[in-house]
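A quick aside before the break. I want you to see a complete sequence-to-structure record at least once, exactly as it would be stored in a machine-readable document. Don't worry about memorizing anything.
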Amino acid sequence: MKTKPQVWIKLRFLFSVSSSFFHPIPTIPIAKTRAWPPVAAISTITALINGTPDENFVEEARDDDPPINSADVFREWGCSDSEIDKIFMRRSSLRRADPDLIQSKLNVLRLLGLTSSDIVKIINFRSTILTRRINRCSDDRIKFFLGLFGSRELLHKAIVRNPSLLIYDLESKIKRVAELYEGMGVPRQDFIVMVLSRPTVLSRTSFTDEKLEYIRRTGVSEKSKMYKYVVVLIGISRLETIQEKVGNLEKFGFSEEEVLGLFGRSPLVLTLSSDKVQRNMTYVLGTMKLPARLVFDRPFLLFANLEAVLRPRYLLAGKIEEMGLAPQIKGPKLLTALRMKEDRFLRAFVACHPESISKELMEYYRNIKGLKRLAVASKKNSHHQGFAF
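That is the input. The structure line, written in tokens, reads:
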């Protein structure tokens, strides 16, 4: 019986496959290539930032050998081993990240003027920044930022304060918010100041009819220096938060109009927590026996630290009066004493006495300041991670 040709072909194919399976072909290592951004893109962005393409940087990228891991990339950037450990502690996934991808993102940050210390600071507070697609930063975004901030120095400062500027949607987020504030009568220069001081301006701004009504009822005109603070702080606050803070002050006998008037004269009261305002008001009215109206005339009483300033200085005033010493901290002088810096306060009311009395007063003052609220003393130590905003 003769074997058909098709059978021989199938048998030969099977033997060849099995032979290659048991005797694999030795793999030849392929040189790893660097995933740099296109040279044209680097030159374009560099030209936008510095005015001329950074040819040395492109040449360096071509000549150097690719880094072995992400730690080598950060080390080449000038980060110390302790800084690299801090980066990996904040974002452990960066330890296993593709070094070429990390390098391409750091290139963009370098072209924007950021240094190694800036990178450590950014990652420490915004650890996800290098996991986002910042290496796709467009020329339109850079052009808009340069036109908005007016200088490379301000752009650099803004990115360090809020690296999410490289991530926010340019049209629906950044440009829209800038146009909103311009329509509200906030000059471009004031808007830049607020973006630098309040990075959440771009991410949290919203204006509803209720918020616009609150702004109107504060009584602040567009020409006032306080106007930009009122508009921005109400714009980035939730409506429920504003209503809660208004209601918190109404508990002490003020009308809603009076509270909004206070916000107009001292907008930063909106940044205080309801707990702090309530505790300070309770101490000022209940212990110090000062009239509530005085708080509206002297808003610093709401900002002052209760444990470090209000309470110890008020009790020291009582101690000085009890000992019959002079000068005493009474009447208008009490308000002046509460606003003084620590060194000046001690020179004016403690160090002015003979040494023995001065030591007694100082010991009494330190003991008072050493006392903490039960909730504060028992609270576990926790290190704040992330930007304050």
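Two observations worth writing down. The CA atoms of residues 107 and 135 lie 8 Å apart. The radius of gyration is 32 Å. We'll return to this after the break.
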